[in-house]
Design a protein that fits this description.
Layout lengths: L4 E6 L3 H12 L4 E7 L2 H10 L4 E4 L8 H8 L7 E6 L5 H6 L4 E4 L4 H16 L8 E6 L2 E6 L3 E7 L2 E6 L2 E5 L3 H8 L4 E5 L2 E4 L3 E7 L2 E6 L8 E5 L1 H13 L10
Parallel strand pairs: 1-2, 1-3, 3-4, 4-5
Antiparallel strand pairs: 6-7, 8-9, 8-12, 9-10, 11-12, 13-14, 14-15
């Protein structure tokens, strides 16, 4: 039996708040929908009872949704945060404050269902709430790239290029940031320019230029070989062998 959620809908525009609350109330996994028209009212609700998730507008008078999310970071039992906004240019800021999902208005039923599914997963297994989707902007459209679809990541200055089963996505996040966030999620920094998913590794081989790691094809991302820095080679071999998600061993 799945958990029944208590959620809080926050929007300063009454018609938008009514629509959001209505859509949430129709969902079978949501038992109670609370409402707030601004950040102050939202904090009052959040301090008054346990709430599993907050569906939050970004542009509001007083504290914005992003600022409210920053306040929630100090809560011992922070609710899952899903932004609901008409603005598609705030996805990176939403990611930085730990948003679980990012819905664009008008709200599509399939995207709302997906957001609720992610909330359920995060509340049942809190360790999964850690940035398991990455918002990436392409041609004015925000794409949500699940972390478990990413085979490897390439540094491009202060940006990082995600190579996923759905294709290549450029995000405004340094590779070092993703390395620190994802190390415990099965990723390994093999080189100053590359971060790889251990589950995608099919082998390691020595070449004239040094050690190379082989990654299997991953949907739209083809099989590749990437260089491994000398200081990373031994730890990478150890992690590949120990990784419980794999039953392959690296080549000698």
């Amino acid at each position: 039996m799945s958990k029944v959620l208590t959620v809080l809908a926050v929007d300063d525009e009454a018609p938008a708040l009514d629509e959001l609350a209505y859509l949430l109330s129709r969902h079978g996994d949501i038992g109670k929908v609370l409402r707030a028209g601004d950040a102050t009212s939202a904090l009052r609700e959040l301090n008054g009872r346990p709430i599993d998730a907050i569906f939050l507008d970004i542009n509001m008078p007083g504290l914005s949704g992003i600022e409210l999310a920053g306040v929630l970071a100090n809560f011992s039992n922070r609710p899952a945060i899903v932004f609901v906004t008409a603005h598609d240019d705030k996805a990176v800021a939403a990611f930085d404050v730990g948003a679980l999902d990012y819905l664009l208005k008008p709200i599509r039923q399939d995207r709302l269902d997906e957001a609720v599914r992610r909330v359920l997963a995060a509340t049942i297994e809190p360790s999964q709430a850690d940035d398991d989707v990455i918002p990436a902007e392409l041609g004015g459209v925000t794409h949500l790239v699940p972390r478990d679809t990413i085979g490897w990541v390439e540094a491009e200055g202060d940006y990082a290029r995600l190579h996923s089963s759905s294709g290549s996505h450029l995000v405004r996040i340094p590779l070092s940031t993703l390395e620190s966030r994802w190390r415990d999620k099965g990723f390994h920094r093999v080189h100053r320019s590359y971060l790889v998913a251990l589950r995608q590794v099919t082998g390691l081989r020595n070449s004239d230029s040094g050690v190379l790691v082989r990654l299997r094809a991953n949907g739209a991302s083809p099989a590749v070989e990437l260089p491994v820095s000398r200081r990373q080679a031994r730890e990478l071999r150890d992690r590949v062998v120990r990784d419980p998600m794999r039953n392959l061993k690296p080549d000698d």
